[in-house]
Structures are given as structure tokens and as C-alpha cells.
Amino acid sequence: VREARLKNGYSRKLVDKQWSSWNNQSISGTHDNTYQYDGGSTSEYVWVKAGGNTQSTIGAGKIFTLNQPTQPEI
């Protein structure tokens, strides 16, 4: 089983250098349980898990919202 926590995620546009916070992550559509993956969130990070005997509990159509600034503190 592999697990990861994703925290303080941002992207930046090349053209105007504007930051985009990854504070809203969504899962849409349906998923196939044979891929053995799961995920969720706390107020600080999104977590994902895959492999082994992982059972999916996330369903579809969920939005995970994180508490983080709209741009990184540099």
C-alpha cells in the first residue's frame, strides 16, 4: 500500500505570474473499485492511498476544501 499527503499546493501561470491555490480538490464521475484506491481530506491536506487491499470510500462528486492562503508565503 502506498500513501501520500498533499499540502500547500499551488500552481503559477507563466504569462502573468499569478498564483492559483489548490485549496479545492474535487472528485467527479464514477470510479472503478478494482483499482484499489482511496482518499480524503482534513482541513490541512488531501490524502490518497492505493494498492494492497485498499477499499474505496470516497465515492464521486465530492469537493475537498483545505485551509490555506490564496498564494504561497515567499
UniProtKB/TrEMBL annotation:
Superkingdom assignment: Bacteria
Name this protein carries in UniProt: Chitin-binding protein
Organism: Bacillus cereus
